[in-house]
Design brief:
This is Heme chaperone HemW. InterPro entries: Aldolase_TIM, Coproporphyrinogen-III_oxidase, Elp3/MiaA/NifB-like_rSAM, HemW-like, rSAM, rSAM_sf. Keywords: 4Fe-4S, Chaperone, Cytoplasm, Heme, Iron, Iron-sulfur, Metal-binding, S-adenosyl-L-methionine. It is found in: Cytoplasm. Belongs to the anaerobic coproporphyrinogen-III oxidase family. HemW subfamily. 37% of the residues lie in helices and 19% in strands. The radius of gyration is 21 Å and the shape is globular. The strands form three sheets. It has a nine-stranded mixed beta sheet, with helices on both faces. It has a three-stranded antiparallel beta sheet with strand order 10-11-12, with no helix packed on it. It folds into two domains: 259 residues, Aldolase class I (TIM Barrel), CATH 3.20.20.70; 71 residues, Arc Repressor Mutant, subunit A (Orthogonal Bundle), CATH 1.10.10. The two termini are 34 Å apart. The chain is an alpha/beta fold and 405 residues long.
């Protein structure tokens, strides 16, 4: 059910933002719609998700209507902050959004259109479990305005999927991709590497399968062991081995080589696309510091420099909205130091990099050493930008520490 929410100051019942909040109409605005339902909890997952037995009275069949109440509340809040901004991106995440009927997702998208408008050519993404994607479902999503399906492949190897507690049939990844293509949707595949018992050969097989499916976009994430998860407990008890950093580095180098050979370019440490147009514009908005409103239990938002986040449990979320109150649990306005640190951390991870002038304190003096260590690109630095080399992508956290000391 995810980690604990951060602390912050209370949010008024009407959800209004602090006096003096200013929204720049030139800043892109994105919408995130969280669907917190899963059939089974994966052992590594730390997201705010719930199986049927954990809902305590919250109902999946009422969820779309509940979330649309928050959309109406957000419209009222944003109307007082200057000219309306249409949504440049919409992202249904989870959980498993495709556990809901496509019609419910379509109604939620219609509510976003009515409340804010959606830009022409907007990217509208739905995350999907491969077992839930059929020709009919994909066609209905496309007809509602969805443009992109992000399919949770994770691995093509059955024992690796089992180690991750993933229950989908690996053969259904191809079925889902085919259905998405027939519906005219762009396709992204999500992979995870470094699972207990996964060999380099296993990973090679998964990457090659993903490439053969000819997606537009691939995300490949190193398995991270989050406190409180089933997998963390198994490792602590010695039942399964912890991820091997050296093996994960080899896996990263392989996926980077394989995707490069197949015509993909990296644009963020864990993300590759066939072209700039096929990058995830929604995720780029996060990394570039845009505004977004996150709807749903536990969802986080960022508007005009204010961060706020919702209560976590679907039942508490529904109760707040049924009473006509904001579901926001708390909010904060990061100070200049915190905001700058976050900007360095996020901008360093993307292909365009970070202006050298934005490195903190002694961090600018670290640039020469980072070039000498092969962690940042010397040519880009000469032109005033900090851009990670592949070695730097493997050691991105160390680069950020050097730049922010």
């Amino acid at each position: 059910m995810g980690s604990a929410l951060p602390l912050g100051e209370p949010v008024p019942a009407d959800g209004s933002l602090p006096a003096g909040t200013v929204v720049d109409p030139r800043t892109p605005f994105g919408v995130y719609l969280h669907v917190p339902f899963c059939r089974v909890r994966c052992g590594y997952c730390d997201f705010n998700t719930y199986t049927a037995g954990e809902l305590r009275g919250a109902r999946q069949d009422e969820y779309a209507d509940t979330l649309l109440r928050e959309v109406e509340l957000a419209r009222a809040v944003l109307e007082g902050l200057g000219p309306a901004r249409r949504a440049a991106t919409v992202f249904f995440g989870g959980g498993t959004p495709t556990l809901l009927p496509p019609g419910d997702l379509g109604r939620m998208l219609d509510g976003v259109r009515e409340a804010f408008g959606v830009e022409g050519g907007a990217e509208v993404t739905v995350e999907a479990n491969p077992d839930t994607v059929t020709d009919a479902a994909a066609a209905e999503l496309a007809a509602s305005g969805v443009t992109r399906l992000s399919i949770g492949m994770q691995s093509a190897v059955p024992h690796v999927l089992a180690a991750l507690d993933r229950t989908h049939d690996p053969a259904n990844v191809r079925t889902a991709v085919t259905a998405a293509r027939r519906a005219g949707l762009d396709v992204s595949l999500d992979l995870i590497y470094g699972a207990p018992g996964e060999s380099l050969d296993d990973w090679r097989a998964s990457v090659r399968t993903a490439v053969e499916l000819e997606p537009d976009h691939v995300s490949a994430y190193a398995l991270i062991i989050e406190d409180g998860t089933k997998l963390a407990r198994q490792i602590r008890r010695g039942e399964v081995p912890a991820p091997d950093d050296d093996l994960q580095a080899d896996m990263y180098e392989f996926v980077d080589d394989a995707l490069g050979a197949a015509g993909f370019d990296w644009y963020e440490v864990s993300n590759w696309a066939r072209s700039e147009a096929q990058r995830s514009r929604h995720n780029l908005a996060y990394w570039q510091g845009a505004d977004w409103w996150g709807f749903g239990p536990g969802a986080h938002s960022h508007v005009g420099g204010v961060r706020f986040w919702n209560v976590k449990h679907p039942a508490a979320y529904a109760q707040r909205l049924a009473a006509g109150e904001s579901p926001a649990a708390a909010r904060e306005i990061p100070d200049v130091e915190a905001a700058t640190l976050e900007r360095v951390l996020l901008r360093t991870r993307i292909r365009e990099g970070l202006p050298v002038s934005e490195a903190l304190g002694e961090g600018r003096r670290a640039v020469a050493a980072l070039i000498a260590d092969g962690l940042i690109d010397g040519s880009a630095a000469v032109h005033g930008r900090i851009v990670l080399t592949r070695r730097g992508r493997l050691l991105a956290d160390a680069v950020v520490r050097a730049l922010t000391e």
